[in-house]
Description:
The complex is a heterotrimer of chains A (264), B (278) and C (285). Chain A is 38% helix and 25% strand. Chain A has helices at 2-22, 37-50, 63-72, 117-125, 151-160, 175-184, 213-217, 237-247, 249-257; strands at 26-32, 54-61, 77-80, 92-106, 114-115, 142-146, 170-172, 188-193, 202-203, 205-206, 224-232, 261-262. In chain A, the strands form 2 sheets. In chain A, strands 1, 2, 3, 4, 6, 7, 8, 9, 11 and 12 form a 10-stranded mixed beta sheet that branches. Chain A is elongated. Chain A starts with a helix and ends with a strand. Chain B is mainly alpha-helical. Chain B has a single domain (44-277), classed as Orthogonal Bundle (MetI-like fold). Chain B contains 11 helices and 2 strands; from the N terminus they run ααββααααααααα. Chain B has helices at residues 5-38, 44-48, 61-92, 97-111, 114-128, 135-159, 163-171, 176-205, 208-211, 231-241, 245-277, and strands spanning 51-52, 57-58. Chain B has a two-stranded antiparallel ribbon with strand order 1-2. In chain B, a hairpin with a 4-residue loop joins β1 (51-52) and β2 (57-58). In chain B, α1 crosses α11, α3 (61-92) packs antiparallel against α8 (176-205) and α4 (97-111) packs across α6 (135-159). Chain B is globular. Chain C is built from 13 helices and 2 strands; from the N terminus they run αααββαααααααααα. A two-stranded antiparallel ribbon of chain C has the order 1-2. In chain C, α4 packs parallel to α7. The longest helix of chain C has 35 residues, at 250-284. The chains are: A alpha/beta (264), B mainly alpha (278), C mainly alpha (285). Chains B and C meet through α1, α3, α4, α5 and α6 of B and α1, α2, α4, α5 and α6 of C.
Amino acid sequence: MFKRVFMLGMFLLAGIYMVGCGRGKTSITLAGSTAFQPFAEKLAEQFMDKNPNVNVTVQGGGSAVGIQSASSGAAQIGMADLVTLPEEAKGLTSTVVAKDGIAIVVNPKNKINNLTTDQARDIFNGKIVNWKEVGGDDVPITVVSREAGSGTRTSFEQILTNITLKKDALIQDSNGTIRETVANDVNSVGYLSHGLINEKIKAIKIDDVECTSEMIIAGQYKLVRPIFLLVKGEMVGEVKNFIDYILSVEGQKTIKDNGLLPAK
Amino acid sequence: MRVNPKYTQWGAVTILTGATIFTILILVFIIFFILEKGLPVLGLSFLTENPQEMGKAGGIFPTLIGTIILPVFALLIATPLGISTSVYLAEYTKETRITKVIRFGTDCLAGIPSIIFGLFGYIFFVITLGLGWSILSGGLTLAVMVLPTIIRTSEEAIRAVPNSYRKVSFSLGASRWQTVKKVVLPNALPGIVTGIMLSVGRSIGETAAVIFTAGSSLRIPSSVFDSTRTMAVHFYILAREGISSENAYGTAATLIIAVLFVNLLAYYTMHRFIAKRS
Amino acid sequence: MKLVGEKGVQRILMITALSAISSLLLIALFIFSEGLPFIFNYGVGNFLLANEWDPSTGHFGIFPMIMSSVWVTLGAMVVGAPLGIAGAIFLSEYASPIIMKIVKPTIELLAAIPSVVYGFIGVMVLAPIIRNNLGGPGLSLLAGCIILGIMILPTVISISIDSILAVPRSYREGSLALGATTWQTTHMVTIKAARSGIVASIILGLGRAIGETMAVIMVAGNSVNIPNSALDSVRTLTANIALEMSYATGMHREALFATGVILFIIIMILNSIASVAIRNRNAKK
């Protein structure tokens, strides 16, 4: 009886393999930036509708994983959202496929609507610890930031300059979790990708400039970083086709419709 | 001053009873909290539709596939290894240095946190063996993780088979292996099945080890080399990222019902097994 | 099976029986080979005792995470151990066998609930209660302790029950015959005799608490910070690995594996103590 169970198992296994090989699909894996992940998913779906013989898989992980998995070959395409690419990415072919604004967000119940760059820096440095210091209610500020290594955090700190994040800042590991934390806590402030702003949170003006697509395209809004796709060596075959598709009018429209900004 | 032992007796029993009731209330609260908000979302279409926009709308069909296929794959590997280990420990050897080492290894493996399994699976299966984020990597990692559970429960079940059964078999001229195959294992089967069910339950609920090895792709996998997302991982992502609290509750409710069902089934088999023995 | 013969079967079984121990060694090998070189290059003292964790500037001190793990685990014990041991005593000494038969598996179901569900309940229910009534961000050491305290209950309860039931009947009968009440018997005779098993249950609970990841990430807030109060946000060793693993390259990644090495060593020490305690229990029987 155990032999029979074993045989059944082997058949199942063999079956799974054959299904896998039988289709003869080319498969492309993307990994990296969680900020670009939803867009990549959507672009992948559209691309696969047009090219049924290609299977595009999208993994999150973060910018560092994007760079690392593109160099190691774990993924054919790495996604990274950094202002400047680190040393490890020097050997990779990089393409800017979109731009993204970083919004500073507070709870909708917070009456603050504007911060200067200096105030924002002081809040994240821990020099300003109470909302009344910037014209709000007399309540402590809960700072929410991303984990070390995050593309959004690295870009945020590079653009604001001179940031040493205060020790007791809460750390969340994605744009979505920052949004949830800020939505749940009246006293908190965080930052996230401009494309992910929704009604649960409020994006505030920086130096009186609103965080909108128009202001970002016009170059008025300062907190902006590029999104790179990274490929090891030359771009060829379906990988090239996919990246070309993202850069095409249609691909760029998808990016724009869903809250990111086109590359050019 | 001495308090009358009657009063301390009464006080102690009240506190002990209270603690037990409180513990049960916590369990009841968790299950009701999830089911109350999740059951209205749950329906046939929720289970059979594909998710849209990363799970914001639509159902959870691909994660259902992932939740079934990963534990099945893990147990296809862990069950034969676990059972033969327990047969060796219970039937083929006395307590020696080797069995002590094996037992110690099994205990330690059981105590290792899932994040360590995740790290190991990532560096070994995903990177070193080049399997990528896949059902293969995730299944192998889970297999290592549930191995101790299967070994322990199978060994207990095998030891619970009365010695007289073996004696009869030997006296009829059967060899040790024949006895194990025809007498011991069939009689220990319900206990072994309990261990398998408990392992399935643990695999279904696992997140940390799975997310680093099987990845989190929402597509229906077409081979064991594809990445997949289980319900637990899907719930984690939906809830953490605030993608859709409705679908998060729906997924959590499905998840809770699945683990409760699997565990109750395990207890039921075990109960039958014990009832039959005594 | 005729092909291999009895000796052959035994050999095959022995080889498969080594699967668990060889998996353990493989895990140790890979975690250590990724993490140990970093620990020695960076300096054991610098790594374990420095306060600053800032991978972007090359600072990798995990002392705050070690302290946070210790506090979270101790806090979980304060919540979980008394409750669990009380439950175990009630079920094994005072409840009727039928109640025991129903309640014990029910409590063990607590172990079956996925840790992400615990974390979710912590975020949705516990954190707002703490924030609104006690202050602070809500996602805190306290929230972590309470959630972990609940999560270790099944471990503490079922192993404690086993050890209390392993105490011979004659001990209790002797005490009762001397005129002691059942509670006097319980706390002066039974618990003393079951002590090493109860200790083992607490140590295994400690291991579970220190190793828990997803629930802690969700409820503890994850600041790199030695907590001053229970309302501060903390980051445990496990959270440190899981939060940053996906973003880490080079030295940073090695430092996370090194965090895994420390965690692995702590767990192995706890497991060894627990298995000695359980062996003591079984030897006394």
